[in-house]
Amino acid sequence: MKKVHSLTGMIDLIGSKVGKNNIADKIFYTETILKNIFESYSISEIRTPSLEDTNLFKRSVGDTSDIVNKELYSFLDKNDKSITLRPEGTASVIRSIIEKKIDNESHKLWYLGPMWRYERPQKGRYRQFNQAGVEMLGYSEGLAELEIVSMICSIIRKLKIEDPILKINHLGDRDSKQKFCIALVDFLKPLATKLDERDLKRLDANPLRILDSKNPKTLEILKEAPKIKDYLSNKSLGTLELIKSTFSNECNIEIDHNLVRGLDYYTGFVFEAVSSNLGAQDAFLGGGRYDDLCHELGGKELPAIGMAIGIERLASLAKSIEIPKTLVSLIIISSKIEPKAYKIAHKLRSISKSINIDVQLSDGSLKSKLRRANKDNAAYALIIGEEELESETVIIKPLLDKNSEQTVMSFNEIESFIKEID
Ligand code: HAM
User: Fold this and answer.
1) End-to-end alpha carbon distance in the chain
2) Pair 135, 41: CB distance under 8 Å
3) Measured between alpha carbons, how far is 336 from 386 in angstroms, rounded to an integer?
4) CB within 8 A of 69, min separation 6: which ones?
5) How do residues 159-193 score in pLDDT, each as one tens digit?
6) 394, 362 in Cβ contact below 8 A?
7) 80 in the Ramachandran plot: left (φ > 0), alpha (ψ -120 to 50) or beta?
8) Which residue has the CA at smallest separation from atom 22 of ligand 1?
9) How many angstroms separate the CA atoms of 342 and 359, rounded?
10) Which residue has the least CA distance to atom 1 on ligand 1?
11) Distance in angstroms (rounded) separating the CA atoms of residues 131 and 284
């Protein structure tokens, strides 16, 4: 029979047991670490649907972005309504708080889940990938910027990310952004015939986004164009300097005045964290301030800042994962199902905090089950045969330390033993 394959750019993640350190293990571990960090910053979880009305992304991420232009997974549903698999999380979070009529309050929210972008797959770039994001809503420029960068530093430290650089920039406050955009349009309008269709569209809709152009001709023209940094207010420049000086001992922070993000909604402070170990797709997180988005989507004026982390990219950078768990393999050698022996596993699981207990469920000889336990890197095999059941004892066989002898313990003693190694 012909096999069914997974779709291009979509990967399966299959975790191993203990200590294998494959990419799936690293991804799951990274997700746990991120959740713990978010909770330690007193941020609450939000879950929004994977499918949204296509208009949500057109109106937020924007018509001039690659994401909306080329990469949306959009379909007509059975009612001929255009729906889209979310390419990012920010728009859905804002949609949700507007819909719940809580857009007049401040919120700190995190999310984690799959996103979809129809990109050309390559290393570090998938069509379905996972993002963890944080959105701080209702906070004007200031402490919220520091809080976000503090969190990025914690993530980099905790996961021991190699060679990270946090690039930061400011797109200007309303006044300076407006002045810069006028100057940019004045400069580019006479050269309009040299711009491609995409950049012309950007010139009309959101001139700042031309700075994100990948067209070599546009890039050449832009060399002579007005520069954002010449229009920034002292306050905006001060924000960049404050962030850099506050965290310079923690993280390598570079002010990069050429950094503009690939989404339309950004308004002020923006950033991207990169690592040379990632190759061409070098950003493992990105974000910034988007003070106008809530209002533009029909809600109240709500200043906001946020970031999203590419889990696959971050996990591939995590040096090694600490798996504190010890694996104990329970081998029951008996011709019939032994509730008494199984109860031991149940009891041990209820008392242990960090030990994983793998009850070997398949039939097989002691030898094959021991082989399996060794393959899984179990630290101990607990063996219960007919004789042990009779005498209410368990054989403990250390598997990692080959010099240690196996011992026999009573059912009661085994509980103390598990507590000891826990
Ligand atoms: P973004 O820069 O489009 O921002 O995505 C954030 C991160 O997601 C990227 O830095 C990258 O690590 C990862 N990523 C993006 N596309 C792919 C892909 N095709 N395959 C693997 N990883 C990918 C946003 O999505 C904004 N919503 C961030 C934000 C939140 N801004 C404010 N709040």
Assistant:
1) 48
2) no
3) 10
4) 63, 198
5) 999 899 999 999 998 889 889 999 999 999 999 99
6) no
7) left
8) 310
9) 8
10) 286
11) 10
pLDDT at 30: 94
Residue with tokens 């598990």: 418
The whole-angstrom separation of Cα 355 and Cα 324 is 8
- Residue 71's CB is within 10 A of a number of other CB atoms, namely 18
If you take atom 25 of ligand 1, which residue's CA is the nearest one? 88
Q: Work out which ligand 1 atom sits closest to the CA atom of 283.
A: 10
Name the band, by pLDDT with cuts 50, 70 and 90, for residue 335.
low
Which amino acid type is present at position 348?
A: L
Strands 355-359, 326-333: parallel, antiparallel or unpaired by DSSP? parallel
d(CA 321, CA 28): 10
| Rounded CA separation 412/255 (Å) | 62
pLDDT at 403: 85
Other residues' Cβ atoms within 10 Å of the Cβ of residue 215? 15
Residue type (1 letter), 245: S
Give dist(CA 273, CA 312) in Å, integer.
Answer: 14
Please answer whether residues 210 and 188 qualify as being in contact, where contact means their C-beta atoms are separated by less than 8 angstroms: yes
302-320 CB burial, b ≥16 within 10 A, e <16: bbbbbbbbbbbbbbbbbee
Nearest by Cα to 160 from 49, 333, 301, 315: 315
- Per-residue pLDDT at 354: 81
43 three-state secondary structure: coil
> If you measure from the C-alpha of residue 313 to the centroid of ligand 1, how many angstroms do you get, rounded to a whole number?
10
Instruction: List the residue whose alpha carbon is closest to atom 15 of ligand 1.
Output: 310
392 conformational bin, left if phi > 0, alpha if psi -120 to 50, beta if neither: left
* Cα torsion angle, 120, 270, 52, 202, sign: negative
Give the mean model confidence (pLDDT) for residues 401-407. Answer: 88
pTM, whole model, 2 decimals?
Answer: 0.88
DSSP state of 161: B
Question: Which three-class secondary structure state does DSSP give residue 72?
Answer: coil
| Distance separating alpha carbons of residues 305 and 270, to the nearest angstrom | 9
Backbone φ and ψ for 385, nearest 5 degrees, come out as: -110, -175
Report the chain's mean pLDDT, rounded to a whole number: 92
| Mutation pick for ligand 1 pocket among 313, 314, 316, 317 (CB with most ligand atoms within 8 Å) | 313
